[in-house]
Amino acid sequence: MKRIGVLTSGGDAPGMNAAIRAVVRKGIYHDLEVYGIYNGYAGLIEGNITKLELGSVGDIIHRGGTMLRTARCEEFKTPEGQAKGIEQLKKFGIEGLVVIGGDGSFQGALRLTEQGFPTIGLPGTIDNDIPGTDFTIGFDTALNTIIEAIDKIRDTATSHDRTYVIEVMGRDAGDLALWAGLADGAESILIPEETHEMEQIIERLNHGLERGKKHSIIIVAEGVCSGLEIGKQIQEKTKLDTRVTVLGHIQRGGSPSAFDRVLASRLGARAVELLLEGKAGRTVGVQNSKLVDHDIQDILTSKHTLDLNMYRLSQELSI
Ligand code: ADP
Predict the structure, then answer these.
(1) What pLDDT is stored for residue 264 in this prediction?
(2) Catalytic residue chosen out of the listed positions 12, 127, 140, 184
(3) Which atom of ligand 1 lies closest to the CA of 42?
(4) I want to staple 52 with a disulfide (CB 3.0 to 4.6 A). Which of 36, 158, 185, 281 is the partner?
(5) What keywords tag this UniProt record (predicted)?
């Protein structure tokens, strides 16, 4: 293998740049030429492809977003779109590809591998919802962004004796909500993996009030319900002064944490090694602090699980 490509696809996540840098530098270290494909699969179809040098990825390790930019591309879901993509890869003499993104992006990587094009998937998403890895690139940074925001909200919640409902990202996975709730001592954490009764949430609030607690933080993963709806119900069913903050896309941005930079560097470098070893259709992850790789199809057919012991702990600690 002489020439490889790298692209970022789907939702952006902090640390994607560190992963791109690792793929490029590790590739060049092994005398490969590395090509950057801009705008995800859309750029692949269009041939928006440029050779990257050591300097092309300088000064990006600390930047959020992705220098290769990202996109969603419906056309790539079709066999015709995929054929156009493979044609472009062949035109540029690219023999292996690293795709950094979420499960949708992995579907694209699987299609390429099935059609004989060696592709490796790197989990890049703030949601931490990819099986086969304990952490995805971007999760730790997003979590810290949430914590910083909640700490600030807590200051005003305490000053005004208010109840705050904070909606965080996580459509199918409650990892961000759970970790943030545990890290910030939230009274209730609403995650998609569990069922939640409004009566119980109110009961917990009342219990806190009885022991003199005048402010509360409730974290809601967006996949459970809108934070506004929860806030409305609490306001209606209690006399508590309740406010709602939807953190939104602030969670996607910012300089990646040290953890995400290190994770991205390790995963990016391992992806290049796998291509050099002649492997294809693998995803790279970290489990119990060790680098691992799995069959991409297995990853796409298994389900990410959240540590429910952590959920129980959060409940025990917020009595
Ligand atoms: P994420 O990778 O963050 O989960 P998406 O689900 O939007 O983001 O997927 C990103 C892109 O991956 C899509 O816009 C599309 O180009 C490609 N993709 C998603 N699903 C498939 C599929 N079944 N076959 C081929 N490509 C796909």
Answers:
(1) 98
(2) 127
(3) 16
(4) 36
(5) Allosteric enzyme, ATP-binding, Cytoplasm, Glycolysis, Kinase, Magnesium, Metal-binding, Nucleotide-binding, Transferase
List, in sequence order, every residue forming a beta bridge with 204; answer none if it has no partner: none
Q: Which residues pair with 294 in a beta bridge?
A: 283
CATH number at residue 116: 3.40.50.450
Q: How far is the CA of 79 from the centre of ligand 1 (A)?
A: 13
Model pLDDT for residues 265-311, shown as the tens digit of each residue: 999 999 999 999 999 999 999 999 999 999 999 999 999 999 999 99
Does residue 25 sit in the same domain as residue 117?
Answer: yes
Q: Phi and psi for 143 in degrees, rounded to 5? A: -60, -45
Residues 215, 286, single domain; the answer is no
- Same domain assignment for residues 8 and 129: yes
**Does residue 108 line the site of ligand 1, with CB under 6 A?**
yes
The alpha carbon of 84 is separated from its chain's Cα centroid by a whole number of angstroms, namely 28
Atom of ligand 1 nearest to the CA of 102: 2
Residue 231 and residue 116 in contact, taking contact as beta carbons nearer than 8 Å: no
- Measured CA distances, 57 to 4, 14, 16, 98 (Å): 15, 15, 12, 16
In a shared domain, residues 147 and 283: no
Number of domains in the chain: 2
Three-state secondary-structure class, residue 72:
coil
Active site residue 172: no
Domain span including residue 178 = 141-253
